[in-house]
Design a protein that fits this description.
Cathepsin D, subunit A, domain 1; three-stranded antiparallel sheet; 1 helix; globular
């Protein structure tokens, strides 16, 4: 099995402390496509997320008009957020020939650019989190 390794990225936000401290999280670069538009995004790999969630501010960069997309609410640990859905495609850095088409929900005020979760990403890849070493390992799942 061919594994690609990605280092965790350090952020200064840590909800456990009043002061600032660094906590490392598993981000991976993906390339989101919509028609002729293609943008690189550092996405947080989130095993607790059902699918792809994208910051609504990226819709313009992708040529997406929110007024032409179905509106939807998304529930999570921080409550209910209103957004809109749109089908996009993406590829994972290190796996350029594996384009994934998925329905994403775009949420304003998302604290990260993108979350990738269970549907599509975890169905196509084997994912190994090594928090102790701040390393994310990803391999293509065999059919």
């Amino acid at each position: 099995m061919d594994w690609k390794e990605y280092g965790y990225v350090g952020n200064l936000r840590n909800w456990r402390d009043v002061g600032e401290s660094v906590i490392y999280r598993p981000y991976i670069t993906i390339y989101i496509h919509n028609g002729n538009e293609r943008i690189p995004v550092d996405a947080l790999v989130d095993s607790g997320s059902d699918g792809m969630v994208i910051h609504a501010g990226l819709a313009k960069d992708l040529g997406i008009d929110p007024s032409k997309c179905p509106h939807k609410s998304l529930g999570g640990a921080t409550g209910l957020k209103d957004g809109f859905t749109c089908t996009v495609s993406y590829e994972v850095e290190g796996f350029p020939k594996d384009t994934i088409k998925t329905k994403a929900i775009f949420i304003p005020g998302l604290p990260v650019a993108c979350l990738i979760g269970q549907e599509d990403f975890f169905e196509r890849f084997i994912v190994q989190f090594e928090k102790r070493n701040n390393v994310l390992k990803v391999s293509k799942a065999q059919k």
